[in-house]
Amino acid sequence: SGLLTRLQNPAPTTRTLSSSNSFSQNIASYLWKLGRLNHVAIAVPDLEKAQSLYKDVLGAQVSETVALPEHGVYTVFVELGNTKLELLHPLGEKSPIASFLQKNKTGGMHHICIEVDDIKAAMTELKKKKIRILSEEPKIGAHGKPVIFLHPKDCHGVLVELEQA
């Protein structure tokens, strides 16, 4: 019984899910659910250069610059069809993006944003599960909708933003 015989008669494979912990049962227990990826945010040291890269070099549709003083950032959105990139630049010295850029001089990925259908229910459930939320209440984000940020140490090193859909 050589290799050729084994290739001609492969062993059957069966995949089963444990009925006590199936994927669908886990989802059904939530009072809220994750939606689509809204955007990936990139901190940039030079906003005009970054805008030019996406608009003039790559041909993307790029928004105007918007100041968000409550978050300490300037934002620009790059439309990608299935999602967006958010270019972030510091607004003021106390900006969280300023401290990010001090550690990452050339910029880099800052956070991901995922939509949720009920941000208040998500906050309640996540707190019960010991996931730290970086504010007591949602703030209004760049899209004019409530947002919260989850601590990266609780999310495998990724800063996660949840946005009310």
TrEMBL record:
<dbReference type="InterPro" id="IPR051785">
    <property type="entry name" value="MMCE/EMCE_epimerase"/>
</dbReference>
<feature type="region of interest" description="Disordered">
    <location>
        <begin position="1"/>
        <end position="20"/>
    </location>
</feature>
<comment type="similarity">
    <text>Belongs to the methylmalonyl-CoA epimerase family.</text>
</comment>
<protein>
    <recommendedName>
        <fullName>Methylmalonyl-CoA epimerase, mitochondrial</fullName>
        <ecNumber>5.1.99.1</ecNumber>
    </recommendedName>
</protein>
<dbReference type="GO" id="GO:0004493">
    <property type="term" value="F:methylmalonyl-CoA epimerase activity"/>
</dbReference>
<comment type="function">
    <text>Methylmalonyl-CoA epimerase involved in propionyl-CoA metabolism.</text>
</comment>
<dbReference type="GO" id="GO:0046872">
    <property type="term" value="F:metal ion binding"/>
</dbReference>
<dbReference type="GO" id="GO:0005739">
    <property type="term" value="C:mitochondrion"/>
</dbReference>
<keyword id="KW-0413">Isomerase</keyword>
<keyword id="KW-0170">Cobalt</keyword>
<dbReference type="InterPro" id="IPR029068">
    <property type="entry name" value="Glyas_Bleomycin-R_OHBP_Dase"/>
</dbReference>
<feature type="compositionally biased region" description="Polar residues">
    <location>
        <begin position="1"/>
        <end position="17"/>
    </location>
</feature>
<dbReference type="InterPro" id="IPR037523">
    <property type="entry name" value="VOC_core"/>
</dbReference>
<feature type="domain" description="VOC">
    <location>
        <begin position="36"/>
        <end position="165"/>
    </location>
</feature>
<dbReference type="Pfam" id="PF13669">
    <property type="entry name" value="Glyoxalase_4"/>
</dbReference>
<dbReference type="InterPro" id="IPR017515">
    <property type="entry name" value="MeMalonyl-CoA_epimerase"/>
</dbReference>
<keyword id="KW-0479">Metal-binding</keyword>
<dbReference type="GO" id="GO:0046491">
    <property type="term" value="P:L-methylmalonyl-CoA metabolic process"/>
</dbReference>
